[in-house]
C-alpha cells in the first residue's frame, strides 16, 4: 500500500517586517479614526459657531429696530420738554393751558430699550465664547454688552427710580391728573376743556412747588438728551457689529 505524505502548512514564523506592518496598519487605522473624529468635532463646532452668529445677527437687527423707535420717541419727548419749559416761563394769563396740560401728561412717557441679549447670555452662561473664533466679533460683543449695562440701563434706572417719581409727586400737587389718560384723545380732551377749563389748568397758588417742577423739567430735558446720545451711540455699535458679522460669516440678510 502506497503511503502519500502530505505537506503540513503550519503557522510560519513571522519576522520583524510582518509585525511592523501589522502594527503600522493598526496604528494607521486608529490614527485615521482619530482624524475623522477630530474633523467631525471641528465640523460640529463650526456649525454651532455659524448658528450662534446667525442668532446674534437676528438679535442685533431687533436691537437696531428698537433703538430707532426709542430714539425717535425720546426726541419727541425732548421737544415736548422745550414746549413745557416755554409755557411755564410765561405769565399764567398768557399760557396755552391745553398745550401745557398735554405736555405734562406726556412727560410720563418712559419707553425703555428692549435689549435682545438671548444669544449673548447663552454664550456667557455656557462658556461658549470660545466657539466664536473671530476675535473681532467676540471683542465687539463684550464691549457692546458692557456698554449697554454701563450707560443705557444705568440712565433708565436713574429716570425710572429717581426723576420720574419726583416729577409725579410735583405734578400731583399742581395739576388735576384725572384727565392725563385722555390728553392724547383730542375729541374727549376738548370736550372736558370746553365744559370745565379750570379742571386742566395748573394750580397757581403754589409758586414754590411750581418752581421745583420747572427745575425738574430742566433735569428731565438734560437726562432725555443724554438718553438720546447713549441710544444713538448704542445704535452705531449695533450697526457696526452687524457689519462685522455679515463680513466674517457671510450673512446676506439686510438690516430692516
List the helices and strands and how they pair.
Layout: H1 16-88, H2 97-106, H3 118-125, H4 135-174, H5 186-195, H6 207-249
Helix pairs in contact: 1-2, 1-3, 1-6, 4-6
* Count of DSSP-assigned helices: 6
Written as H for each helix and E for each strand, in order along the chain, the element string is HHHHHH
For the residues shown, what is the average pLDDT?
84
Number of structural units classed as domains: 1
Q: Name the helicity range.
A: over 70%
User: C-alpha Rg, in Å?
Assistant: 35 Å
Shape, principal axes of CA atoms:
rod-shaped
Percent strand equals under 5%
Q: Largest sheet at a glance?
A: none
Distance between the termini: 103 Å
